[in-house]
Amino acid sequence: MATFLYKMGRSAFRRRWLVTFLWITILTLAGVGAAAGSSSSSGSVSIPGTEAQKAFDLLKERFPGTGADGATARVVFKAPGGEKITATDNKAAVEKAVGELGSGSKLVASVTDPYVTRSVSQDGTTAYAQVTYKVKSNEMTDAARDALDGAAQTGRDAGLTVETGGDALEAQPENGVGEILGIAVAALVLVITFGSMVAAGLPLLIAIIGVGISVAGITALSGTLNLDSSTPTLAMMIGLAVGIDYALFIVSRYRTERAEGRTPEEAVGRATGTAGSAVVFAGLTVVIALAGLLVVNIPVLTKMGLAAAAAVVVAVLVALTFIPALLGFAGDRVLSRKTRKESVRTTADAKPNMGTRWASFVLRRPVAVLVTAIVGLGVIAVPATGLTLGMPDDGSQPTSTTQRKAYDMLADSFGPGFNGPLTVVVDAASADDPQAAAAKVSRAVSGLKDVTTVTPATFSKAGDTAIITVIPGSSPTSTATEDLVKAIRDKGAAAGSAAGATVLVTGQTAMNIDVSQKLSDALIPYLALVVGLAFLLLILVFRSILVPLKAALGFLLSVFASLGAVVAVFQWGWLANLFGVQETGPIMSMMPIFLVGVVFGLAMDYEVFLVTRMREAYVHGERPAQAIVTGFNHGARVVTAAAIIMISVFAGFITAHEAMVKMIGFGLAIAVLLDAFVVRMAIVPAVMALLGKSAWWLPRWLDRALPDVDIEGEQLRKHLDATDAEAVPSSGRELQDSRV
Q: Are residues 671 and 578 in the same domain?
């Protein structure tokens, strides 16, 4: 591996104009594709294999043209204090607004009249109209949303309080200033780390080009692949972070090789062969973790993972080829001014840096450092024991939004369960009497605990399928509502079966319950697959059993601690104002498994970059303890800079308006913070110190069976020694250059 990458790096260095032209061409083509292709993304979530999804699919089949899969909006009208919404003037104002809702846009499929459907609260103060659209929320036009706002304003002009909720109001996510701030912090860190504007600019340029290609490609394919609206944002988040890091490691190794006196071309080759090998395997662990989301079998999550994995692959390829080319253009300008003025400096001449001093400290007190780090992470992880999963709805919106106001008005006037209605679908195609079957199901459901309202059955045109709406007495995210869904699926289904019908429960609340259950069931298989594959990969990289085992256990510590931090902020509300969290509530169902996947890949990045330096020193003859110090001497500063950059990039997304992006940005930022500075910088050297030479133990039979990927560059060194021996006459070998 190292020898191949060494040759590839030197080739890219020599053919830098061609390499640059190819990457700029790829970026241009991706941009043209994004501009010409459909940028429409999916606004729906499909959960194959769940009862809620089966019911939803049945509704689309049996109730065609009703907008069953279209966006919806609820327009809530409340009369002025002391008045009734049924009063003549108020009723006229509501009916006028309802009329505008029906005629305001061609995208409207249907509008309900609250006085016809009896959608008026018992106290007579509040009513609501339901608007169903022919298109999904992501396909809503600005004109359609303006018409919705205009109808609401008509009611307000008449003196009513009017608020609007529903997914029809969902806007496409926009990137805010936070991402720009994250890049600015990254630039500052790079300048401080390298002491050179050119060296600092290369990783940023490489990352931006890689992300540009990835996001443009995803945007071009969004319509074709029906990608979720969050997919490009998440791909940009991960691609930008790893792109900067991968370029940072190669540029840093190049500077080290140049400082030791090697020619630019030789330094590029060695940097690509050694640091580039670490980049390849670090990227592979991230790709494995993200692509492993396939096992969850939730299309939206799978597509997010594959898109982010593609962004990582692009980042690796750009780092391995474009960085050597750009280094050819930059020359010695990537070196700091001080280094350029100094003569060739050897490692022995270098003063101990912070990494060396920290590693020496840990080697003196490994047990104390290990215990302190584990206890600290354990304390942070405690809130994770109270983790409650759910999906965001209008109740999780900030109180200043019209969606949240509409949600609260409905809850106050109609009951907390009104915002989470359950749709009971009675498939009576095989029943002798569909009407009787639906009636029997209605009676069974009406007798269940926590049921407030059961609407009369609505039949399809064919008369073989009925819809029954059930209003729970509890809020959509409560345990009581979850128990009610289970009870309907039990007793309601039994009643339907006795009448020859099939009963299914769907609706947003039921869908959320099914999503949470499906993700919970998939978490263990997913962990087993991802950790298992990565464990095998790390055995191949480090040629050790205990080092990969330690890496996996350290990951579990950091991921549980990061989940604890997410629960503390987003569910319990600790420091919520600091992070701009206006409303607390259940953690999104997709968050834990997505966090596990991404954090595992990123955690292995630092493991690979830091420990491969130790492995390289150990293979080249250093004692285990000294190898730890050498690894930190060369890698600690760069890993620290990389972690700060990644934290900054992820933290920039905390400013996003979309709840999922905000939560993932925070979770990833805190996970990198804990994993890089506690697990990799403290636990790893402490455990390695305690293990000593045993850390690199590998059974002989396994050592013979495993291919030698040469990530530490030992085979590359032999290859270079052999090349130099052939090129230099034996009588003049003392004249060999500093490559040896």
A: yes
